Amino acid sequence: MTPTRSLTRVPALIRYSNPITRALLRAGLPMGPNVLMTVRGRTSGEPRTAPVAVAEIDGRRYVIGAYGEVNWVKNLRAAGEADVRIHGGIEHVRATELDHDGAKAFFGKTLPGYIARFPWIGRAFARLLFGFVGPEVLNDPERAAATRPVFELSPAPGEADRSDADKLPSR
With 90 as the cut, is the pLDDT of residue 54 above it? Predict the structure, then answer.
């Protein structure tokens, strides 16, 4: 039996540092894979902005709900689309959640292969980070797939036709 997703809370250190991270990213400070993602709230309809890490792997983009079923994950699942501030611009993307088998393959093959390409300091940081966030991300793909949603981000249809004014305002 596959364990259910039970994580619902971001650690306090991350919660308290998110406003600073958001401000630094808005100011254009590069912070590795971290970007700002704006999603419509699932109940309010208001735009909600959160810092997230986007992994660009072999021409595809992924975002991991590292802390499980947190609000941005629920909002992205409901909306199916978001605006991502990345590479100096805002891109409107479609978000497709990987099913359990897809997430298991992601945690079992795609993510380890991606991390293996990092320089030694990057690999050490990834081990430290995921050891803190959840060791199963690197050691137990079955459990990681059951507890940590993964979304693939792809360009939304008609993106070239949208102006910045049509995109979600960030908050």
Answer: yes
C-beta of residue 6 within 8 angstroms of C-beta of residue 146: no
At 163 the three-state DSSP class reads coil
pLDDT (tens digit per residue) in 30-50: 667 788 999 999 999 999 999
Tokens of 17: 């540092």
Per residue in 74-117, pLDDT (tens digit) is 999 999 999 999 888 899 999 999 999 999 999 999 999 999 99
- Identify the helix (H) or strand (E) that includes residue 25: helix 12-26
- Collect all residues with Cβ–Cβ distance below 8 Å to 131 and sequence separation of at least 6: 138
Q: How many CA atoms lie within 13 A of 68 on its CB side?
A: 16
The answer to whether 72 touches 80, Cβ cutoff 8 Å, is no
Identity of the amino acid at 63: V
125: nearest Cα among 28, 53, 20: 53
Just give the CATH number of 12-166.
2.30.110.10
